[in-house]
Amino acid sequence: MAIPAQGVGMRIGFIGLGNMGSGMAANLLTAGHEVIAYNRSPAKVAALAERGATAAPTVAAACAADVVISMLADDTAVEAVTFGDHGIVASLPDGATHMSSSTISVALAERLTAAHADAGQVFVSAPVFGRPAAAAAAELFVVAAGPASAVAGLQPAFDAVGQRTFVLGEDPHTANLVKLSGNFLIASVIESLGEALALVGKAGVDKQQYLELLTSTLFGAPAYRTYGGLLARGEFEPAGFAAHLGLKDVRLVLAAGEQLEVPMPVASLIRDRFLALLAGGGRDLDWSALGALAAWEAGGPKPG
Question: Which residues does the UniProt record annotate as the domain 6-phosphogluconate dehydrogenase NADP-binding (predicted)?
């Protein structure tokens, strides 16, 4: 089943309507694409159906499409919907494309590429940078890799969910490696911001004023503005991206580093900081709570 030419609405199966997926699927509908949605929680499918989506009772039903997009939490969730007698590989038509926007391991991306090729299908990795608000506003940054013709055919979908697409070549796992490296950098920003805010805060400096100084001079990047703001306000609930998922991503980047024989000592430190946050009850807080550990250890309130 070939992807329609650009300018023609696509028939898209969408699996995973969580914090990110619900906004992405809604924007595909807004852009004029047909969406067949599946989610373990039927209520989220019903909400999308009210906007024009078709509710799929099973993963297999969502695969009756030109392309199926999965947006799930981790490797385990992606494996559960992809493999097996009624999974994506078994149900997707010959020549159709599985586009994974999930943040998964490099190893799983390689396995998915091989499994879809063996089934006569195409696999494209297209993870995204951005929090749920960006997903809802179609302002994500898409990082795509896969066969050139398939990636080009998916451009209408990329355009519907994001503000810019970066194509990184024909090996899908490359996009996953880049996504993991980016999340590692964000976690590093959160930790270092937290330590700096703890230092000046304990000395009596107003955290909001300090953050305004930083982001107006040395560090104007969105990560500093977004996560600095959450830290300064102590705003960790509801979680846009939960701390246990941050730990998962740092573990995955460490696994990639080990495979490539690249030492990542800072990533090892960040992993241990996430473990401390989870051990203290912060599993479901926003991952920005990682930066609040320093203030807690300096005598401040416990994160959350």
Answer: 11-169
Q: CA-CA-CA-CA torsion for 232, 236, 241, 247, nearest 10 degrees?
A: 90
d(CA 175, CA 207): 36
Q: Mind listing the pLDDT tens digit for each residue in 6-32? A: 456 899 999 999 999 999 999 999 999
Question: Considering only the top CATH level, what class is 11-170?
Answer: alpha beta
Q: Which of 179, 207, 248, 302 is catalytic?
A: 179
* Domain definitions of the chain by residue range: 11-170, 177-298
Residue 138 has, within 13 A of its CA and on its CB side, a CA count of 13
Written out in words, the top-level CATH class of the domain with range 177-298 is mainly alpha
pTM reported for the whole predicted model: 0.94
Query: Low-confidence residues of the chain, pLDDT below 50?
Result: 1, 5-6
